[in-house]
Design goal:
It is a single chain. The protein is an alpha/beta fold. It has two domains: 3-159 and 251-289, D-Maltodextrin-Binding Protein, domain 2 (3-Layer(aba) Sandwich), CATH 3.40.190.170; 167-249 and 292-348, 3-Layer(aba) Sandwich (D-Maltodextrin-Binding Protein, domain 2). It has helices spanning 3-25, 29-35, 53-69, 90-96, 117-120, 128-137, 140-149, 188-196, 206-215, 226-232, 259-263, 267-302, 312-332, 334-365, and strands at residues 40-46, 74-79, 101-104, 153-160, 167-169, 183-185, 200-202, 220-221, 240-243, 252-258, 306-309. It has a six-stranded mixed sheet with strand order 7-6-8-5-9-11, with helices on one face. It is globular and about 65 Å long. 39% of the residues are buried. It binds calcium ion (CA). Calcium ion binds at residues 164, 222-224, 245, 248.
Length: 370
């Protein structure tokens, strides 16, 4: 028996023994402590379907770990998108306390407050690693908590996709003029930038994209990365797979907790929940990093997909448009500006460091492994 397992079993036995003693002799010592741990049963509504197992799975990683850490006394039941509420009603459902928790991408809710985009990703913004650094060790946590306080929610990072792919195009899009009149499924801030490039932007839910692409209603579509995209089957229709997804350089997911529910938890359950969320945050990113290379190889080697980088012209123009949009949002709203200033200063300092270290190493080493 491994040591950890032995210790766990031993402590379970001790707890069980103490309970029996406690029943016989009244509430004393360990018995009282064990008996007073409350049973808490929560529900979590996800913005994602079960079929997208990596992104949906983060909520299950969290729930399983919380149960383990509390000896099964604090349980969280996870519901996929649509079972309790649609994917885009997760925030308000947690806000009202209909369910205690949610798992979502905050940029789905920029209609409520545009600054919520910074909790997920903005074009040419922080990557996963930089976003975690800003949240855990910069001002990100306080600034985002300030935003979510308006919605009666405590937020915790809950996974990241890493740099996404640019998506699937029936025809090549090598120059800026190729984007004019193109019908593309791309939501949010990225869609706003594409629209400025002349793209006819379409917003379709996950399940609607494939039929629209197949029927020629759209010419191009983006989703996330090789592992998830392969499941949705876009490669069967559009063979040009562009990269990088400059509009989502590290899409961060978040766990939402209703503030009243959070306040009702004992301190050790709060600690268990925070630890489990941090584990789920790391686990999703690692899981995508494990699955995407395998899916990419299948797509390229077995499905005849053509990998194509966006041109410098396209990237540069998209970047200019992005920073214009960010500046005008900041000029219109001091609260938005406060967050953008912090995020932007972090981006610049971090880019300088990672350009020196990570980027120099990666551009040498990764390019020799083709
Ligand atoms: Ca995407």
């Amino acid at each position: 028996m491994k040591r950890r397992q032995f210790v766990r079993n031993a402590s379970l036995t001790l707890a069980g023994g103490a309970l029996v003693t406690g029943c016989a002799s009244g509430e004393t010592g360990t018995a009282a402590a064990v008996q007073t741990r409350p049973r808490v049963n929560w529900r979590l509504t996800s913005s994602f379907p079960r079929s997208l197992d990596t992104i949906y799975g983060a909520a299950e990683v969290l729930a399983n770990r919380v149960a383990e850490l509390t000896d099964g006394r604090f349980t969280i039941r996870v519901f996929p998108a649509g079972e309790l509420v649609p994917y885009n009603q997760v925030l308000e459902t947690v806000q009202k306390g209909t369910v205690q928790m949610g798992h979502s991408a905050s940029y789905y809710f920029t209609g409520l407050n545009p600054a919520l985009a910074f909790d997920t990703t903005v074009p040419f913004g922080l990557n996963a690693r930089q976003l975690n650094a800003w949240f855990y060790h910069g001002e990100g946590k306080n600034l985002m908590r300030g935003l979510f306080a308006d919605f009666n929610i405590i937020n915790l990072p809950g996974g990241n996709t890493g740099v996404q792919m640019g998506g699937w195009f029936r025809e090549r899009v090598d120059s800026l003029s190729d984007f004019r009149g193109l019908k593309m499924r791309i939501p949010g801030f990225g869609g706003q930038v594409m629209s400025e490039l002349g793209v006819n932007v379409q917003v379709l839910a996950g399940g609607e994209i494939y039929p629209a692409l197949e029927r020629g209603v759209i010419d191009a579509a983006e989703w996330a990365g090789p592992y998830d995209d392969e499941k949705l089957g876009f490669h069967q229709i559009a063979k040009n797979y562009y990269y990088p997804g400059w509009w989502e350089p590290g899409a961060g997911l978040s766990f939402y907790i209703n503030t009243d529910a959070w306040e009702s938890l004992p301190a050790d359950y709060k600690a268990a929940l925070e630890a489990a969320a941090a584990e789920a945050n790391v686990d999703m990113f690692a899981s995508y990093d494990a699955k995407n290379p395998v899916a990419l190889s299948r797509l390229v080697d077995e499905e005849d997909v053509s990998m194509r980088p966006f041109s410098e012209d396209v990237m540069n123009r998209a970047r200019e448009i992005t920073f214009d949009i960010l500046a005008s949002e900041a000029a219109a709203d001091p609260a938005y500006r406060r967050i953008w200033d912090s995020y932007n200063a972090w981006r610049k300092a971090s880019n300088r460091w990672l350009r020196t270290s990570e980027n120099t190493y990666a551009s040498f080493a990764f390019n020799r492994e083709i």
